[in-house]
Design a protein that fits this description.
The protein is an alpha/beta fold. The chain contains 7 helices and 11 strands.
């Protein structure tokens, strides 16, 4: 059975560095306060869902440490309590088990998995998908948490020389049992190619598609094939990913999206 996925605009809450990571400032209260401020701005601007990510924890681990799970659980729970829209979790670089556990214990309703099936070469080395383990963990936890799986994930290259976007999409949907497929550009804030969306839709017509990066006011109407768009950089002051979320930018893009997405 497929789980319910978020639709519309999914606003990103990019957490600043958490305890244990090199750029942590030593003040977790400040990290949480910044996350809650961005959440309030996203909600006031009219987003349809929110996703929380440990964006500041560079360089990323393949699987995170216990302290990261603890810190994210604390902050995600506070965001869930604050929010009237669905909340999701992405644990970078690729820790779906941590994300599933955080979601299950905080009341979040979906997770993003960057490498769900197959394998990708990244700056963390080779990352292998864990679809079988992730689906079994969800079953064991007895939770209805949707899995949004990237295909052709950004900041990565295929490990298999015979890789195609279409085949990964088919495998993620039919064999990995993802609840939706995310199609992105090649990096944070990079535009998602409409052609890539069309290729995935043709390969797996029944799968809900999500645009994973690069959405702007002037391009959101191009993504009518998508059920959702994940937006981070475009919501930030001056369009810089490291800045805070700006209310006017959120309102403007939410307004632009009303007629631009199915």
């Amino acid at each position: 059975m497929r789980m319910k996925i978020p639709t519309g605009l999914i606003g990103m809450v990019h957490l600043k560095a958490l305890p244990g990571s090199p750029n942590f400032t030593g003040d977790l209260d400040a990290v949480e306060a910044a996350a809650l401020a961005d959440t309030n701005t996203l909600l006031a601007g009219g987003v349809d869902a929110i996703m929380v990510e440990n964006f500041g924890d560079v360089p990323f681990l393949k699987q995170v440490e216990t302290v990261t799970v603890s810190a994210m659980t604390r902050i995600v729970r506070a965001i869930v309590e604050l929010s009237h829209v669905p909340v999701g979790v992405n644990v970078l670089r690729n820790d779906p088990h941590a994300a599933m556990a955080i979601a299950a214990t905080t009341g979040a309703s979906f997770i993003r998995v960057n490498v769900h099936i197959g394998a990708m070469l990244t700056d963390q080395g080779l990352i292998e998908g864990q679809a079988a383990q992730t689906l079994r963990l969800r079953e064991q936890l007895g939770c209805d948490i949707a899995i949004l799986a990237d295909v052709g994930v950004k900041h990565a290259s295929p490990f298999d020389e015979h890789w195609t976007l279409e085949q990964e999409a088919k495998d993620a949907w039919n064999r990995g049992l993802a609840d939706a497929l995310i199609v992105s550009g090649n990096g944070t804030g990079a535009p998602t190619k409409v052609d890539d969306l069309e290729r995935v839709k043709l390969a797996v017509p029944e799968a809900p598609l999500i645009v994973g990066s690069g959405v702007r006011n002037e391009t959101v109407s191009d993504y009518e094939l998508a059920s959702s768009c994940i937006v981070g950089t475009a919501f930030k002051r001056d369009g810089l990913v490291e800045n805070e979320v700006q209310l006017e930018r959120v309102r403007e893009l939410c307004h632009s999206s009303e007629a631009g997405m199915s």
